[in-house]
Amino acid sequence: MAKVKIVLLPKTRRIIDEMGENIKLARLRRKLSSEQVAERANISRPTLVSIEKGKPSVSMGSYLSVLQVLGLEKDFLIVAKDDTLGRKLQDAGILVNERAAKRNDKNG
Question: With 0-12 CB in 10 A as exposed, 13-18 as middle and 19+ as buried, what is 90?
Fold first, then answer.
């Protein structure tokens, strides 16, 4: 099976790069080697390196495992917590079309 190339907009690319750098800095502040963190997170060292470089091809589960090892797993709950745009749309009363009722095919 061919590997799918993930394409990110430049702004999004910078965000994931920064997240990887923040994870690396958190590891270094705790004076943990990459081997220690990878082992504790049950991932390979190359996967940890990819996380620290902000590679989008790494699963969210792997990112979360590393955050858990670093004691930062609750930071994951902050993602999309304050959905300002969504709340504004909700408050504006934007209606979403509902599904049509099922047809009764017996009557043609």
Answer: exposed
